[in-house]
UniProtKB/TrEMBL annotation:
Keyword Protein biosynthesis: no
Any GO MF annotation of the entry: iron-sulfur cluster binding
Official protein name in the record: 4Fe-4S dicluster domain-containing protein
Keywords in alphabetical order: Iron, Iron-sulfur, Metal-binding
């Protein structure tokens, strides 16, 4: 089984546009929406959930006032200043400052601090007109998005195995933080969708560093390449000098936004020259995946 993760660093470069197009072009695959903070692939795929489950993760610690000896040990260890002495309530935890590291529970000599799980989101396995989609929803203000991305990927691989499907397509999150890291570790190939803008180029370099660190091969696609010829040339040069495979370039076309507003992929909406560009990109990505170790 092969796993492709589509990333960008900068948000809004066209990850979901490309992921939805690949979902239309790949004959056999399971899709995973790894943008759990602001998922939007489901808007294009009209999923019908066939399995729904709670996502539980570690919450803020709770101090049991009965057991607490008010020694102040936890306060002195907490590097986030999240534990304070309240003259009425004894030692209390500031939920906004707490980073859930759990150190206080480890150091408390009275075992007075409890770490409890709570429901902070949900994940779903759904039927769509393009095949199975695994997606998730993180509650407002909740942490643990990296953990939820890992869960979504695991369930997508599980579904692919059960269905005898050889490809998992991950629509990745923006940025290079914890959710992006969780979306690329152990994946076979990252396709970075970039655009010819200063932040597009800057964030492409950051994605490349991340891929290098986790030893994941990087391929690149320039979306809206005709909006700035000079910056697109700079991206081509960068790909050549850094050894990243430039696998395709997609022109700007207002029909793309119209297609997405009609909840259709650019392939299904037959978006003129964009269709040829994305089809060529998909063929190049498939060929690249086929050359990777472990391919039939
Ligand atoms: N080639 C293109 N021509 C014209 N508009 C485009 C093109 N590609 C993407 N867009 C538009 O850019 C916007 C962002 O695209 P998309 O949602 O695919 O990006 P994203 O990287 O998934 O964003 P996010 O980081 O928010 O998930 C959308 O309005 C889309 O219609
Ligand atoms: S370390 Fe334990 S006993 Fe000491 S103040 Fe903190 S919660 Fe109370």
């Amino acid at each position: 089984m092969k796993e492709l993760t589509i990333l960008s660093g900068k948000g809004g470069t066209g990850k979901t546009t490309v992921s939805a197009a690949f979902a239309s072009l790949a004959s056999s695959k399971v899709m995973a929406d790894c943008d759990v903070d602001a998922s939007n692939l489901h808007l294009l795929l009209a999923p019908e959930p066939r399995q729904t489950a709670d996502f539980t993760a570690m919450r803020s610690p709770r101090i049991d006032a009965e057991l607490c000896a008010e020694c102040g040990y936890c306060e002195s260890w907490c590097r986030f200043d999240a534990i304070k002495l309240d003259f009425d309530d004894g030692y209390v935890i500031d939920a906004l400052a707490c980073e859930h590291c759990g150190l206080c529970a480890l150091v408390c000599p009275e075992s007075a601090i409890l770490m409890e799980d709570h429901v902070c989101g949900a994940w779903m396995v759904s039927d769509t007109r393009k095949g199975t989609l695994v997606h998730a929803r993180l509650g407002i203000g909740e942490d643990n998005s990296g953990k939820l991305v890992t869960l979504v990927r695991r369930e997508a691989r599980r579904a692919a195995q059960a269905e005898g499907v050889g490809l998992v397509l991950n629509d990745g999150p923006p940025g290079i933080g914890c959710p992006a890291t969780a979306a690329i570790t152990g994946t076979d190939l990252v396709l970075a969708v970039t655009e010819p803008t200063p932040s597009g180029i800057h964030d492409l370099e950051r994605v490349a560093e991340l891929c290098k660190h986790f030893k994941v091969p990087l391929a690149v696609c320039i979306n809206k390449h005709d909006l700035d010829a000079e910056k697109s040339a700079a991206i081509r040069d960068w790909c050549q000098s850094s050894g990243a495979d430039l696998l395709g370039e997609i022109p700007f076309d207002p029909a793309v936004t119209k297609a997405l507003m009609a909840q259709r992929s650019v392939i299904d909406a037959d978006c003129g020259p964009v269709v040829d560009a994305v089809t060529g990109l998909w063929e190049a990505v498939s060929a690249r995946l086929g050359q990777l170790p472990g391919s039939p």
